[in-house]
Inverse folding.
């Protein structure tokens, strides 16, 4: 929560540096690596380095339904394919996507346009009642 509070406090800053010490000097890479190493040890997880934070950021946004283009912009990626390599879904998110198929389809009327992954077709569904 300490980092969350610090980031919220400095959210208004749009400069290239986000983490600074009390004197306003940028945090050195080695210091940040030590923080991540210490947090991984305390959390009893494998320390895969600072770069995993970018993957975590993109993945959590994707699992919460953020548009890929928004994630791309927030991550600072020039190409969407780069962003897609950073977006990992949890097993629960994949299962949730599959469960969408169990939900009833929206009430279609004759002439409604239905888009699927491979084609767009005009619905011939007759509305009763």
């Amino acid at each position: 929560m300490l980092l969350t509070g610090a980031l919220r406090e400095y959210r208004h800053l749009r400069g290239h540096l986000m983490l600074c010490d009390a004197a306003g000097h940028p945090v050195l890479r080695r210091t940040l690596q030590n923080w991540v190493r210490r947090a991984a040890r305390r959390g009893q997880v494998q320390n895969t380095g600072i770069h995993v934070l970018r993957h975590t950021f993109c993945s959590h946004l994707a699992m919460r339904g953020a548009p890929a283009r928004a994630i791309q912009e927030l991550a600072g990626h020039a190409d969407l394919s780069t962003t897609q390599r950073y977006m990992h879904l949890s097993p629960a998110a994949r299962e949730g996507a599959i469960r969408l198929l169990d939900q009833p389809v929206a009430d279609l009327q004759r002439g409604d346009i239905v888009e699927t992954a491979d084609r767009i077709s005009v619905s011939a569904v007759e509305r009763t009642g």
